[in-house]
Design brief:
magnesium ion binding; Rossmann fold; serine racemase activity; pyridoxal phosphate; 10 strands; threonine racemase activity; 2 domains; TrpB-like_PALP_sf
Length: 316
């Protein structure tokens, strides 16, 4: 059984510190007035490769033996984790093998190549992605690193909330978007370990509300449609992070596509920072249920800022 304590998370943070940015915490007086609460944005859009996932990828690689590091790491991802594992591996002198669906945007493939990842393309089904990754594991002896359902990845992601709580220890609530469960799982652990009077809340689009339904049913649910602009949240929970979420997450608030777009516009216009739609889901949840957050101190983790500028017309 996994043991989670303060010392373990602090060790993770110390381990990855030389390889990541300690990202800023920003606030907006106008957004606070609109929301009726004080929001502290932990800006992982300023993280290396533009998202929180650099933290978990780095920790997962650093936990491998030197022998295993030399054989490399492999993952399947069409988005931020593909870039994160590639850059983390490059920083540590480790080969990275990235399985990407053939229909992944060229801009994401180019980013992975820039970070030194070795791309293998496959058909765009989860079965094909998993089989292709397994083939590389068997051929290269590389270690598979799951984007969100890996304890070392989850702990790495939790260091963003740890940094937030070190600067803002008296938060009432910490809220994050929910996709594969790595960020909210790590956040919930950090909050439970370092700020037990603080609640962890998740935010999710109605179009991919598998985590919301999973908490209700008590088992991991899937999505039939993934029709959302929050493209980083289309993945589902796993057996490593779901028990953590069940135990430590207060609730998950669902938001519409229009609510996501409005929150995204508000952040871009008022804070003058570029964030991806997935990040705006958390602010959309606060604006949707103002009574829940009224006059409270809120920590909000901006998950990333990797926007395909060629698709701006679809966002606003």
């Amino acid at each position: 059984m996994e043991v989670f304590n303060q010392e373990r998370l602090l060790q993770v943070h110390e381990r990855i510190a030389p390889y990541i940015h300690k990202t800023p915490i920003l606030s907006s007086t106008l957004i606070n007035e609109i929301a009726g609460c004080a929001i502290f944005f932990k800006c992982e859009n300023f993280q290396k490769m533009g998202a929180f996932k650099m933290r978990g990828a780095t920790n997962a690689i650093l936990q491998l033996s030197r022998e295993d590091q030399q054989k490399g790491v492999v993952t399947h991802s069409s988005g931020n984790f593909a870039q994160a594992l590639s850059l983390a591996a490059k920083s540590l002198g480790v080969p990275a093998y990235i399985v990407m669906p053939s229909n992944a945007p060229q801009v994401k493939k180019d980013a992975v190549k820039t970070y030194g990842g070795n791309i293998t393309e496959c058909p765009a089904t989860l079965k094909d992605r998993e089989e292709t990754a397994l083939k590389i594991v068997n051929e290269k002896g590389a270690t598979f690193v799951h984007p969100s359902n890996d304890i070392e990845v989850i702990l790495g992601q939790g260091t963003a909330a740890l940094e937030l709580l070190q600067k803002k220890p008296n938060l009432d609530i910490v809220i994050t978007p929910v996709g594969g469960g790595g960020l909210i799982g790590g956040t919930a652990l950090a909050v439970n370990l370092f700020a037990q009077s603080t609640k962890t809340i998740g935010a999710e689009p109605f179009e991919v509300d598998d985590a919301y339904r999973s908490l209700i049913s008590g088992k991991i649910e899937t999505n039939e449609s993934i029709n959302t602009i929050a493209d980083g949240l289309k993945t589902q929970l796993g057996d490593k992070n779901f028990p953590i979420i069940q135990k430590h997450v207060e609730e998950i608030i669902r938001v519409t596509e229009d609510e996501i777009k409005n929150a995204l516009k508000l952040i871009w216009e008022r804070m003058k920072i570029v964030v991806e739609p997935s990040s705006a889901v958390a602010l959309a949840a606060i604006l949707k249920e103002p009574a829940k957050f009224k006059n409270k101190q809120i920590g909000l983790i901006i998950s990333g800022g990797n926007v395909d500028l060629g698709k701006l017309s679809e966002l606003f």
